[in-house]
Inverse folding.
């Protein structure tokens, strides 16, 4: 069986490795650090299953084009991908489905947007409607900053057309949780939950990023909470999608905030999270290839099972990420990091220079994953791996999984 993974990041590297346990895998376009990478476009690759990693090709209808050729595809069509492609569309669907989410308004003009902002209390939350690589969200206590963001977004200055519609919403507080559900159009199965770290700096400081690290399992998450997420969030969303005639086969990634008033949906993504994928998917003890093939065929037949091991991944980012990452620096220490027990290294923003050496080529460069019997062991392994690696200006968040690693739980999920 040949699986074609579409994408070029650490998420796709992790998917390729785990699919590679029982399938042949090619990755397009991949990157020079991912074995099995090919320049051939997906439509020219003759695979038995296509797994589309990033949101942009999903929103752009790649899954539809492949399905039109009779291919088995894991990933929603452009219709379902609107859940991530338009926050306004997603919010409207949540309201229709009765899913708990922050109070919000959607605007294309500054005057009513600023008037609505004035009715909110801090922290102020302003989001681009369209895709902005995880960076189109501002959460701030400063009314001025929120007002300026609204102006810049609507004028197309900050994120081009993605910002010409904005969503303004109530600021929520509480721990965040990523729950990924694999869906076959009719039903869904939950994967092990994860927590990621969105801000660039230690202690949740600095701008939002695509994610600076993640861990799984999450000690404070009980089986009951996961059942609640399935019953009150995922199932009603799938049902609302079906009512709109959408046959959703792919990941529904629920970004939740666990508020004092119960869990609330911050956002849906239509793909595996990055870096959540790097800590969730390798924990599978059942076959990922079978699960995704079944979902692509519209009939999930078994519930996935997970190892008790803990995984922690730490992103090595380029200096200047997320604003203007520095690129073109040689990456040193990959072999040494990979030789450490319990350490794997996934390549994301990685290119090669004229001599074929691997160099930095994007904001998030590497995702270094540690595995062990406890989160503390996994964390120690991940940072041991990071300690072997270097490139000029490398940025790492030192507090990834720090609090969780010192928590003990009777009910690991
Ligand atoms: P999103 O892309 O919508 O998940 O937002 C990115 C990040 O911004 C989230 O992971 C949260 O940390 C933060 N955020 C989003 N919406 C809210 C909200 N309503 N209240 C507080 N923080 C939020
Ligand atoms: N880690 C957040 C995301 O994948 O959107």
């Amino acid at each position: 069986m040949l699986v074609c993974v579409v994408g070029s990041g650490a998420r796709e590297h992790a998917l390729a490795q785990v699919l590679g346990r029982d399938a042949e895998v090619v990755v397009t376009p991949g990157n020079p650090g991912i074995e099995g990478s090919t320049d051939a476009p997906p439509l020219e690759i003759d695979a038995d299953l296509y797994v589309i990693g990033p949101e942009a090709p999903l929103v752009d209808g790649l899954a539809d084009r492949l399905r039109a050729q009779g291919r088995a595809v894991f990933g929603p069509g452009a219709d379902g991908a609107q859940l991530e492609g338009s926050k306004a569309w997603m919010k409207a669907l949540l309201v229709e489905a009765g899913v708990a989410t922050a109070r919000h308004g959607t605007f294309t003009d500054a005057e009513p947007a600023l008037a609505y902002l004035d009715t909110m209390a801090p922290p102020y939350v302003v989001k681009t409607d369209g895709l902005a690589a995880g960076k189109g969200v501002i959460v701030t206590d400063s009314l001025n900053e929120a007002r300026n963001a609204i102006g810049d977004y609507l004028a197309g200055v900050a994120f081009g057309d993605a910002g010409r519609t904005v969503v303004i919403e109530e600021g929520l507080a509480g721990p965040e949780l990523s729950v990924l559900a694999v869906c076959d159009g009719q039903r869904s199965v939950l994967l092990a939950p994860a927590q990621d770290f969105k801000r660039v700096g230690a202690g949740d400081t600095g701008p939002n990023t695509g994610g600076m690290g993640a861990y799984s399992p999450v000690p404070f998450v009980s089986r009951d909470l996961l059942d609640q997420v399935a019953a009150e969030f995922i199932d009603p969303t799938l049902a609302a999608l079906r009512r709109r005639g959408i046959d959703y086969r792919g990941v529904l990634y629920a970004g939740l905030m666990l508020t004092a008033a119960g869990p609330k949906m911050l956002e849906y993504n239509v793909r595996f999270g990055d870096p959540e994928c790097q800590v969730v998917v390798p924990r599978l003890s059942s076959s990922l290839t079978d699960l995704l093939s079944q979902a692509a065929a519209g009939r999930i037949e078994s519930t996935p099972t997970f190892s008790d091991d803990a995984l922690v991944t730490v992103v090595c980012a380029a200096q200047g990420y997320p604003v203007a990452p520095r690129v073109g620096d040689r990456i040193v220490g990959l072999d040494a990091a990979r030789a450490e027990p319990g350490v794997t290294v996934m390549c994301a923003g990685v290119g090669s220079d004229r001599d074929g050496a691997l160099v930095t080529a994007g904001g998030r460069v590497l995702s270094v994953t540690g595995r062990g019997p406890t989160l503390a062991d996994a964390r120690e392994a991940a940072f041991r791996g990071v300690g072997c690696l270097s490139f000029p200006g490398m940025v790492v968040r030192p507090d990834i999984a720090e609090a969780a690693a010192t928590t003990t739980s009777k009910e690991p999920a």
Q: What stands out?
A: The chain has a mean pLDDT of 95.
